[in-house]
Predict the 3D structure of the following.
Amino acid sequence: MKGLIFTYALCYGGAVVSLFNPFVGLLIYVCFAIIKPESLWYWSVPRGNYSRIIAVALLLGWARDKIRDWRFGKAAGVAAAFAGLWLWSVVSALAAPDQERAWFFVETVFKILLPFVVGLSLIDSVRKLKQLTWVIVLSQGYLAFEFNQYYLFQGINYAKDFGFAGMEEGSIAIGMVTALSLAIYLILESDAWWQKAVAFFIAGCLVHVVLLSFSRGGMLGLIGVGFVTLIMVPKRPTNLAVLAAGGLIAISLAGQEVIKRFETTFRQTEVRDYSAQSRLELWGNCWDAMLHHPLLGVGPWQFPLVAHSQYGWPQVKEGHSLWLQMGAELGVPGFVCLIAFYALGVRRLWPIARGKAPVPDPWLRVGARMVVTATIGFAVAAQFISLWALELPYYIMLIGAAVIKLQGAAEPEMRGADLAQTPQEC
C-alpha cells in the first residue's frame, strides 16, 4: 500500500507542481527511472504511464519559460555526442532487419535523451545539482535496501534469482557500482553528520548487492571505483580512514563463494569457466560484426539476432559488452558518439576535479570527482554486460555536464577577478 501511495503522490501531485517548477518533475522522473514502481511494488502498483505523465508535465513546465535556454557552454559537446548517438540509431534503424526491436531501441534512448537535455537546461545552480545527486543516491539506495531485506530476512537473493524490471543480476550490479561513487563522496564531503550517516548506510547496501550478484563485472567495477576514489579524494586523514573502513567492510562482506567466482575472471583458457569463455567469444563476434558493417552496424538491438543466425549462439544472446555490442549494432559512428559522450565528459571534468580549473563553488569539485569516479567504474563494469537501456549512467553524466556548464559560465568572471587582484607590471 505504501508503494501505491508513494507512486500516486509523486506522479499526480508532482505533475501539478512540475507545471510551475519543472525541475521537480525532472527529479521525480529520475526517481521513477531508477526504482521503477510497477516492478518494485508489483503487488500493489498497477501498470500505468507514471513516467509519461511526469514527462509531459515536465515538458510543459519547461516550455513555459526555459525552452529557449540552450546555453550549455562547455557542456554542449557532451549533449551533442548523446544527440548524435540517438540520431545515428535512427539512421541505423531504417535498415535494421527487425524493425520492432530497432525502433524500441530508438524510443528508449530518446526517453533518456529528452530529460537529459531538459535537465541540463534547467540546472542553473549548485543547489539543484545537490538535489539531483541526493535523489539518485536515495533512489538507488532504497532499491539496494529492499534487495538486502529480501536476503537478510527471507533468505532470498532477489537480484540474482529473479532480476529486476527486466534486468539480470549483472545489470543490477552495475547500477549499484555506478551509484556507489556518488554515495562515497557524499560521505566524505557532506556537511551534516546525518547526511554522512545516511550515505554510509546506503553505500553498504549498494556494495552488498554487488557481492550478492556474483557479477564479475560488478566486482571489477567496485575495484575501479575504489582505485579512482583514492586518486581523486584529498588525502586528509579522515578521508583515508573512512575509505579504509569502507574497504575492510566490503572485504568482510565478500564470502568464499564470491571470491572464487571473481578468481575465474583471470584463469587461463583451458580452465576458464563457460561463462567467462563465452564472453570472450561474443566479444570477438561483436568485433567481427562491426568490421563487416562499419557504417550502419547490424541495426539497433539486432546483435542478439545476428549472434543466433550468423554465429550459432542460442536465440536472444546479448554481446555481454556495452561498448562492443553498440559498435556492432550502430557501426563506427554510433560507437564513436557513445565513447565521446562519456570520454568528453570525463575530459572536461578532470581539471575541475583535480583543482586545475577555478570554480565558483567548492561543491563543483566534489561533483566532478564523483562523476569521473562513477564513469570510470561504469566503463570497467560495462565491458562485461550489454546494458544500453540502463538510465542511471546517463543521469550521472547529467550531473557532470551540469558541473561543466556552471563552471564554464563562471570562469570568465573568476579569471577577471584573479587578473584584477594581480599586480600589473610597469
Residues 72-408 form one domain. The two ends are 75 Å apart (CA to CA). The longest helix spans residues 322-353. The chain has a mean pLDDT of 89.
